Amino acid sequence: MILGGGWSQISALRRAKERGFQVIVADYNPKAPACALADFVSTASSFSPEEVIAEARRLRPGGILTLGTDQPVLTVAMAAAELGLPCPVDPETALAVTNKKVMKNLLSSRGIPVPAYRILTADYTDEDLTGLTFPAVTKPLDSQGQRGVFLLNTPEDLPKAVPEVL
User: Fold this and answer.
1) Of residues 109, 58, 106, 110, the one with CA closest to residue 79
2) What angle do CA 128, 97, 66 make, to 5 degrees?
3) Would you call 122 helix, strand, or coil by DSSP?
4) What is the DSSP code (8-state) at residue 164?
5) Farthest CA pair distance, the chain
6) What is the DSSP letter of 157?
7) pLDDT tens readout for residues 35-71
8) Which of 3, 37, 32 lies closest to 22 in space, CA to CA?
9) Is residue 146 exposed (0-12), middle (13-18) or buried (19+ Cβ within 10 Å)?
10) What is the CA radius of gyration of the chain?
11) Where does residue 68 fall: left (phi above 0), alpha (psi -120 to 50 degrees), or beta otherwise?
12) Buried-state track 14-37, b at ≥16 Cβ within 10 A, e below 16
């Protein structure tokens, strides 16, 4: 079972089929490019561990993976752990590499330097920005593909970025 049916997953799908595997592609978009090459298509979202686990229970793959994408790594790890399938990372590690809050807190707790940061919510205040220098960069906690990444030259630029970041 390959999570994600985009162009980045096609090579793995082809390699698996060359080796005689039947391939399930899970992508919320049944018209994603890799879906046309799959033996089975599931519209389970690669961002939803619950949907992927339910589909994997139904379809019973011998393995589950993703590549060329960030966030579904957590879904793969959670599904593999739940279903007893092999996976190179456990769910805790997958969460730490896909959620910037968890990642930065873990690095900081281990004495590994990280750039100054703040975790903000929609109702942040100017006080939450104390100590930050500008220019600064926004990044969502759990997104990929540079979505929600903005260069902020001044604190006044932040209100324009927050809706898309969140």
Assistant:
1) 58
2) 135
3) coil
4) H
5) 59
6) G
7) 999 999 999 999 999 999 999 999 999 999 999 888 8
8) 37
9) exposed
10) 19
11) left
12) eebeeeeeebbbbbeeeebbbbee
